[in-house]
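Sequence, please.
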């Protein structure tokens, strides 16, 4: 199965997490041979045959983070631990490398924290839709959490790996930004009208007084906070640009088409103030003048689960 080793050290975080995942799958396959096959079939639809081989970057003379190969299939794995960091030229290089293999089934799997089905990810998958598959870390963690193994040592290793991924990826990676609505003539947003205007399709973008770093058009979501209602809606941001000669709120955050989601019931202030945070900063959400608040992937998931 190659030289992948759970004790091997990698200076790059992407290589470290890739090695950890592949090592766990390899170890689990010793006591339960179908584990690897189940993992890739369930999460990517790829069927692997016997005579499996694993290679992580330091062992693999190429550009992808890992290679998983069998008699009939070859998978190149590109791993990211920060969302919005894929590069088109890098993916095209991987596809060029993939074409050199003799196996019938050839796939490039992009393992990232980015949301499944996002417009941002679609821009990369459509480069070669029959070759590229997106897999996000949330799906990987769900698979490992639901996997049952009688081997207590292996189960403990899985638990520790999940904790590490959650701490270093889910609790660090920014997935969305809460933006407080400033009502009035300057913003041209009025509390009695704006939600119906959203429902009627009158809003294609949201204007802000300055550019917010995390709203970069790379899959992040904008969430609007209404001081009278709470969090009311979200939309994926496709593009951010400054509108020339616009004095007030000159930055346009354009929505991805059909990504607008108006919450069935607004998320109230008391729930926002309970968002888990090491510094407990959300407890002052209503008293602080800060116009925008970043949410990690873990915090966003917590909010959505609490809101049903």
């Amino acid at each position: 199965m190659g030289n992948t080793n759970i004790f091997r050290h990698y200076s790059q975080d992407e290589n470290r997490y890739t090695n950890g995942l592949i090592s766990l799958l390899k170890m689990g396959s010793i006591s339960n041979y179908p584990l690897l096959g189940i993992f890739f079939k369930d999460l990517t639809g790829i069927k692997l045959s016997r005579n499996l081989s694993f290679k992580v970057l330091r062992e693999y003379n190429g550009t992808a983070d890992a290679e998983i190969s069998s008699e009939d299939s070859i998978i190149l794995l590109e791993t990211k631990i920060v969302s919005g960091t894929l590069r088109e030229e890098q993916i095209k290089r991987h596809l060029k490398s993939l074409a050199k293999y003799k196996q019938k089934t050839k796939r490039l799997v992009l393992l990232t924290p980015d949301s499944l089905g996002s417009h941002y990810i679609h821009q990369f998958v459509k480069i070669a839709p029959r070759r590229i598959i997106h897999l996000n870390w949330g799906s990987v963690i769900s698979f490992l959490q639901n996997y049952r193994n009688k081997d207590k040592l292996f189960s403990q290793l899985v638990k520790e790996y999940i904790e590490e991924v959650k701490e270093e990826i889910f609790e660090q990676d920014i997935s969305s930004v809460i933006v407080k609505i400033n009502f009035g003539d300057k913003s041209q947003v009025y509390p009695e009208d704006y939600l119906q205007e959203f429902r009627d399709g009158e809003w294609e973008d949201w204007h802000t007084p300055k550019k917010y770093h995390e709203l970069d058009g790379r899959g992040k979501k904008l969430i609007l906070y209404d001081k009278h209602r709470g969090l009311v809606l979200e939309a994926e941001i496709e593009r951010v640009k400054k509108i020339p000669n616009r004095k007030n709120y000159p930055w346009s955050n354009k929505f991805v088409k059909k990504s607008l989601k108006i919450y069935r019931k607004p998320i109230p202030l008391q729930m926002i103030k309970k968002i888990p945070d090491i510094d407990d900063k959300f407890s002052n959400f209503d008293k602080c003048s800060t116009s925008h608040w970043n949410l990690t992937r873990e915090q966003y998931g917590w909010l959505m689960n609490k809101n049903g």
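The chain has a mean pLDDT of 89.
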